[in-house]
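agent> fetching stored inputs for the zinc ion docking request
agent> found them:
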Amino acid sequence: MGKHANVKRWEKYDDEGNFEGKKCPRCDSLIAQHGNRESCGNCGYTKIQK
Ligand SMILES: [Zn+2]
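agent> prediction call returned; pasting tokens
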């Protein structure tokens, strides 16, 4: 997967480069959490948590 050099720092990586947030199972982008929903702004994947 391509990482751009100018990628924004909103991705939640710690100092060792470990990912702290959730990733989209479809496109591997960062997933945003909205209450009981998780949605990927890249491909539109949405998961409802019950
Ligand atoms: Zn996605």
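agent> quick read of the result: The radius of gyration is 12 Å.
agent> awaiting further instructions
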